[in-house]
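Sharing a chain and its predicted structure for anyone who wants a worked example. Both blocks are below, sequence first, tokens second.
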Amino acid sequence: MIEIFAPGRICLFGDHQDYLGLPVIACAIDRYIKLTATPSEKRELHIYMPDINEERVIEIDKTITTLSNRDYFASAMKVLARYECIPSKGYTITIQGDIPVNAGLSSSSAVLVAWITFLLEAFGANVKVTPKLIAKLSYTAEVLEFEAPGGLMDQYTISLGKTIFLDTVTGNDTAITNEVESLIIGESGVPKETLEVLSQLGNYAKSSIEQVKKVHPDFDISTATIKDYGRYVNLVDEKLQPIFFAAIKNYMITKEAFEVMQQESIDIRLLGELMDAHHKELKEHLKITVPIIDAMIDGAKRGGALGAKIVGSGGGGCIVAIASPGEEQLVIDGILAGGAAAAYKINIGKGVQVL
């Protein structure tokens, strides 16, 4: 029997930055997708997914040549075949977990990372398998194969684990060894809107940058400051100006947060202030919140949270808050009073594991 555990993830800083090639700070959490596989006499991979009441049968003697409807199971097998990872015997597989579905904690990416890890463990490959290889293959299968919007954050954070500062162009990461404690998750119960929001805001942000580069070809968003916003804003369409501002401001916030988290002792009050500043951009300029998210944020702050923000693409999903140690329950109660479907403390988790 093979058992795989793949964690969920939180973006602490850098939401809506990875599709611009800008860095993010993200962490794995101690909520997991568990994949259990037992050998079968049948020439098939029979997948049971009780959490969503679905099952899937993949005949291993049929070559996958085309993909349909974002079939990540098939896309993963197509990608892995390039590395001579080809199923040679059947398995009965169960996939379930405690990561909330469609909530901004990357349950779908965790399923894919677990699936790819299983295939590599069961059938091998012509390259050395490392967490970073799993991340690269998962990103290829989930994003590149479908020419979908999105960056590297989900697949790399889930595969590598812990807290990382991730270069979303190269995939290089810097481990942040000082873990942020007393993190609280609040679930809104409202499904997020991933692909639509990412596609629209990504296109808007890229358009605003291109409008500047037409006049100033040397403009680089990765070195831009607020002064640059004032210098170039008149070159950007009025409706895109808030998004252009948010791209610059959120990047500056992410860099400052990274400096704070690299200190020997993290100033969690300052980190909370930066989280609040990040959320302000996501709410006021990118406009990705909904009323229940706003109410949960307000509830967290009334409960004493040092900082709080929406997690993920937006339109629903979850929030994350930083509490003072020992005051987690007050923040949880505040989030629940704001209308959350659930709220709970989480810890920083490990990357994908094979047991």
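Comments welcome. The domain at 183-346 is CATH 3.30.70.890 (Alpha-Beta Plaits).
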